[in-house]
Amino acid sequence: MSLPIEPQRPQLMQNDPFSQPAYTDSFYDAVGGHDTFVKLIDVFYDGVATDPLLRPMYPEEDLEPAKRRFLMFLEQYWGGPTTYGEERGHPRLRMRHMPFKVTPEAKDRWLFHMRTAVDALELPALYEGTLWEYMERAALSMINSPSGA
Description:
The protein has helices at 27-30, 34-48, 64-77, 83-88, 93-97, 104-121, 125-141. By secondary structure, it is mainly α. It has a domain at 41-141: Globins (Globin-like). Helix 2 packs across helix 3 and helix 2 crosses helix 6. The N and C termini lie far apart (73 Å). The model is unreliable at 1-13 and 16-23 (pLDDT under 50). GO terms for molecular function: heme binding; metal ion binding; oxygen binding; oxygen carrier activity. Its cofactor is heme. This is Globin. Keywords: Heme, Iron, Metal-binding, Transport. Belongs to the truncated hemoglobin family. Group II subfamily.
């Protein structure tokens, strides 16, 4: 008796809007898994680290704990490891962001740095659009103050 042969997963062609793998378990796998999300987080926090409006919202001197939390959250959200839920429970994003004054300007700055990070991934258009649409919705939902005044 012969064992069934598992089909090979096709490689993604960078920047090809019609390129997508035929066999994937999740968005997380389709975009490259852990390494892709690490790059997203690293590029994003490089911008946050020097942003005069956003940096004060991260009370820890070292951004590594914030990077780890965001990485775990995004990986779980997109179908990767469930470490976030195992360590921190339900995300409760609005509740966790309530101590910080998230204004429309802060949202725009956050999206500016996230746009740089998403672009750095050079994902096929379908995946880039899916990821970016989520980031825009998430950022908009975090606003909890009308202005910086």
